[in-house]
What we know:
Layout: H1 7-16, E1 21-25, H2 33-42, E2 50-55, H3 60-68, E3 73-76, H4 81-96, E4 103-107, E5 110-113, E6 118-121, E7 124-126, H5 130-141, E8 147-148, H6 149-157, H7 165-179, E9 186-189, E10 193-196, E11 204-208
Parallel strand pairs: 1-2, 2-3
Antiparallel strand pairs: 4-5, 4-11, 5-6, 6-7, 8-10, 9-10
Helix pairs in contact: 1-2, 5-6, 5-7, 6-7
Amino acid sequence: MQCAQTGExxxxxxxxxxxxxxxxxxxxxxxDGLEVCRELKRDPKTEDIHIVIxxxxxxxxxxxxxxxxxADDYVxxxxxxxxxxxxxxxxxxxxxxxxxxxEIQEFEDLVIDPVRHEVQAGGKxxxxxxTEFEILRILAQRPGQVFTRFNIMDAxxxxxxxxxxxxxxxQIVSLRKKLGRYQRYIETVRGVGYRFKDYPSANLSSRQDxxxxxx
Length: 215
């Protein structure tokens, strides 16, 4: 187990010897926990490390921001050691369970690549947060199917994660803004949730990801 007292020390330690999981306090001196999380998720060498944020900041906006930075879970203080351990086990279990082969999804010239965790529109890369990307990927996997807000959060963070429905709406607004004209694919179903609109005329394809298929 590695420990660090400052944000700089945390970044240096993780880059020298990447761990499987990080328990990250937000209130770190100099470089705070959110910036540490952001830097680790930007680096291809550390982006896959699981991060559980541990913080006394428990407002919905704080939780949403932590998720946007790519954290796998967000635990608020005070907490019990048993509860924290259960959340850690849940994160590790979600990422070690067998998954179906990941496929590149194409809708006209909107391309979603789950292996590279990348979205391109009209040949240009769109910079999405972890949660924004996961929402888009989940909706696009089943065009036409309606997902409730809680369905979406369960698929991303597991059923034991507590976030209000409003938090999902905030993520959808940001995602639509970044998608520009492609936001037409994300349709609101009033009183229920969201779906990826199934355009019959769209040039839609899905294929297994192999090296060299997406330039």
